[in-house]
């Protein structure tokens, strides 16, 4: 093993040690648990740390639910907590859609302020620190929601410990909890609202269409997919982003379906037209026109 690799591993070890000190320093914490990679790692790591400290009941989880969140992610969150006997409360935040329906560029700020305000109020009632899964890499994208989290006093221990997304996935695989290790291989996810361009109205119908369409692709073996929903004069158009190496599988029919079958399926979900984004999947693509 090279010296460079040794330094990298030592650095990660130091970061994880710092993370342990941070979470144990809270004394009692609640993780805002979406079921995504980052919050899964934070919850699993915190549980392990508190178990070793002899107080596993000092960590709990809360999951926001509503039409803006994919059912398979929230379902995973529930199963994960049940499997590890973690106290878990689901909070219905469907009302937040009324706050962000007009979809301004700072939508994420208003959304996070409303959702985390609800979670923080609950955490404060029981004397726990509310922590989220924000990491160091999240600071590189347009993230107005992070300002809301800071204003509310929500802790971001992964960012504080200096952990990147790659390091979190590496550490997840070795955290010692099977359900968490499996998550290390799962693609990144973001709330369904991010599929709708700024300025175009957010509706429950659009969110249901987006979720059904993405689920259709995932059920056919595509690892990473975003179905962007665009308003056009004739109705709604689905712009599909896939990993570059998986586009050929769709075009060539290697997923047991011809391109026309995918188009027909998307129309069945309510889209008027379907288009494949030749640039492929790219994190934060919808924010490219935004000046932070």
Keywords:
disordered N terminus, four-stranded parallel β-sheet, 292 residues, three-stranded mixed β-sheet, 2 domains, Rossmann fold
Structure commentary:
The protein has 12 helices and 7 strands. The N and C termini lie far apart (41 Å). Strand 5 and strand 6 (235-242) form a beta hairpin. Strands 3-2-1-4 form a 4-stranded parallel β-sheet, with helices on both faces. Strands 5-6-7 form a 3-stranded mixed β-sheet. 37% of the residues are buried. It has 2 domains: 3-183, HUPs (Rossmann fold, 3-Layer(aba) Sandwich), CATH 3.40.50.620; 192-287, GMP Synthetase, Chain A, domain 3 (2-Layer Sandwich), CATH 3.30.300. The chain has helices spanning 3-26, 37-52, 71-83, 97-100, 107-125, 144-152, 157-160, 165-172, 178-183, 204-219, 244-251, 259-268; strands at 29-32, 59-65, 88-92, 129-131, 225-232, 235-242, 273-276.
Stated plainly, the CATH topology of the largest domain is called Rossmann fold
Distance between the termini: 41 Å
CATH architectural grouping of the largest domain: 3-Layer(aba) Sandwich
CATH superfamily of the largest domain: HUPs
Rg computed from alpha carbons, rounded to a whole number of angstroms: 20 Å
The strands making up the biggest β-sheet line up spatially as 3-2-1-4
Parts with pLDDT < 50 across at least 5 consecutive residues: 1-8
Q: Total strand count, please? A: 7
Strand content: 5-15%
What structural class is derived from the secondary structure elements? alpha/beta
CATH class category name of the largest domain: Alpha Beta
The global form is: globular
Give the averaged pLDDT, no decimals: 90
Largest sheet: 4 strands, parallel
Helical percentage: 40-55%
Count of domains:
2
Task: Give the assembly state of these chains.
Answer: single chain
Number of helices: 12
């Amino acid at each position: 093993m090279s010296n460079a690799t040794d330094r990298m591993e030592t650095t990660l070890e130091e970061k994880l040690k710092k993370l342990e000190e941070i979470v144990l320093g809270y004394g009692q914490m609640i993780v805002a648990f979406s079921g995504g990679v980052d919050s899964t790692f934070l919850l699993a790591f915190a549980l392990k740390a508190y178990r070793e400290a002899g107080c596993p009941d000092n960590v709990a989880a809360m999951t926001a639910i509503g039409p803006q969140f994919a059912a398979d992610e929230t379902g995973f969150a529930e199963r994960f907590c049940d499997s590890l006997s973690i106290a878990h409360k689901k909070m219905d935040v469907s009302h937040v859609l009324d706050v962000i329906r007009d979809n301004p560029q700072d939508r994420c700020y208003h959304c996070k302020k409303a959702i985390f305000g609800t979670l923080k109020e609950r955490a404060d009632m029981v004397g726990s620190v509310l922590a989220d899964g924000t990491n160091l890499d999240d600071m590189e994208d347009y993230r107005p929601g992070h300002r809301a989290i800071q204003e509310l006093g929500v802790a971001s221990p992964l960012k504080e410990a200096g952990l990147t997304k790659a390091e979190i996935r590496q550490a997840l695989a070795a955290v010692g909890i099977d359900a968490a290790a499996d998550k290390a291989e799962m693609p990144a996810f973001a709330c369904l609202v991010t599929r709708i361009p700024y300025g175009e109205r957010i509706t429950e119908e659009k969110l249901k269409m987006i979720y059904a369409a993405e689920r259709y692709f995932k059920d056919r073996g595509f690892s990473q997919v975003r179905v962007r929903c665009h308003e056009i004069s004739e109705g709604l158009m689905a712009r599909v982003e896939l990993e570059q190496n998986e586009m050929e599988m769709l075009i060539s029919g290697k997923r047991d379906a011809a391109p026309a079958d995918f188009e027909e399926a998307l129309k069945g979900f309510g889209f008027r037209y379907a288009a494949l984004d030749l640039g492929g999947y790219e994190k934060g693509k919808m924010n490219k026109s935004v000046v932070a």
